[in-house]
Amino acid sequence: MSIWLDLLTRFVAPFLTAFVFCLYIWLYNRGRWSKPQKRANYHSENAIQLESLGELEKAIKEYEAALQIWEEEGNREKIGIICKSLGEICKKKQDWDRSIDYFARCLAIWQAMKSEYSVNELYRELGIIYYNKGELEEAQKNCEVCLKLEERVVDNPNLATTYNYLALISKRKGLYDQSIAHYEKSLRILDSLNDIRGAASVYYNIGNVYAEKGDNDRSKIYYQHSINRFEKIGDDIVEMIKEKMNRSLRNLQRHETDSLYLDRKAEADNFDVFLCHNNIDKPTVREIGLELKKRGILPWLDEWEMRPGLPWQKTLEEQVEKIKSVAVFVGKEGFGPWQDIEQSAFLREFVKRRCPVIPVILPDCKETPKLPIILEGMHWVDFRKKDQDAIEQLIWGITGKRRIV
Fold first, then answer.
1. What's the helix, strand, coil split of the chain in %, to 5?
2. How far is CA 65 from the centre of its chain?
């Protein structure tokens, strides 16, 4: 008996002691770490469920609760994942600034960790958000970074998606040939992958660019290519595209007539509205100007009408004397240095001959800006509002005639 006790004491007891010690450490760590992890996962699961139900603000609060826990635990990987999810929900809510903040934070974490997660996708997401905000230069910059990262991977199908977004940005900037070039690169990739649906969509988009460019014949060709491919896979979208094609062709015919009309007005120096703006807001103002042209209104925009080599003051003074109205645009950066000069001239002209001066708030303006006293009493045209057609409100201010739409 004593021999067995001696063996137990010498050999078994140390192993048992080590086992008990390891079990204690495991239980200690489990008790220490499992509760925060469980709470964080609980909040994340709630957020996913709420997001699926469309309760986006509640989902954000749940994700932010999970984020706070992971921040306390110092788990950078989880912080990055939660920030990405928050960025996606804020994007759905069209809360662009918060979305950018979360995506940028996720991007910084993943880059610092040299993570295997798709950093290129974050750049693309940022590009899309800046596009929706109307900040086209930032949109293009982020999409181009995404493109460079994707080009490192051979036969990367995501390249087609990025080229499509670059094409959209170029189209919105009025760079139609550049837009078509991006779409054609996307098309080559999709054809090589035998992605008929994707190629059909790109043909349709190229048709839209040619339609906006005013090239009737090429627009029809690309619309027909799109129809042929959608019919090949039996997609119900075919009838919609045919209707879009017919509508575009009717619009092109009307546009050709309107263009002749606007050309004659421009030759006679008979502009309807002066577009007074901060140079930072030019891409958005340019887009509004193009939309006004489509609707038969002739705007005066410096980059379209200012002849190189001539003093801008003289040209501006000539317009001040005879312009019919002025739209004063205000974006998130407020007024530009030359806007004050333009405003003063037009306000004096307003007093002299009752020239309409129309304050216009651009979509990226967070708060209603402070204006000169004489403008404060005037009715705004607010492009931030979703429940009204701001462009029609602007045309009403320019012409004095309210259109029935």
1. 75, 5, 20
2. 28
Q: Assign 284 to helix, strand or coil.
A: helix
Location of structure tokens 């040619």: 210
Asked whether 336 and 277 are in contact (CB, 8 A), the reply is yes
Number of residues in the chain: 405
* Cα(11)–Cα(15) distance, integer angstroms: 7
Domain boundaries, the chain: 209-267, 269-399
Burial class (CB in 10 A: 0-12, 13-18, 19+), 37: middle
What contacts 389, CB < 8 A, 6 or more positions away?
Answer: 405
Indicate the pTM of the whole model: 0.61
Residues 343/333, Cβ–Cβ less than 8 Å: no
Beta-carbon contacts of 110 under 8 Å, excluding residues fewer than 6 positions away, are 80, 117, 119, 122
Instruction: Determine the average pLDDT of the residues in 364-375.
Output: 70
Residues contacting 169, CB < 8 A, separation 6+:
127, 131, 136, 139, 140, 143
What distance in Å separates the CA atoms of residue 317 and residue 310, rounded to the nearest whole number?
13
What CATH architecture is 269-399? 3-Layer(aba) Sandwich (3.40)
DSSP collapsed to 3 states, 208-257: HHHHHHCCHHHHHHHHHHHHHHHHHCCCCHHHHHHHHHHHHHHHHHHHHH
- Asked whether residue 112 carries a pLDDT value surpassing 90, the answer given is no
203, pLDDT greater than 90: yes
Answer yes or no: are the C-beta atoms of 285 and 329 closer than 8 Å: yes
pLDDT at 184 (0 to 100): 94
Q: Tell me if 93 sits within 8 A of 77, measured CB to CB.
A: no
Angle at Cα 358 formed by Cα 354 and Cα 362, nearest 5°? 170
Phi then psi for residue 359, to 5 deg, are -70, 135
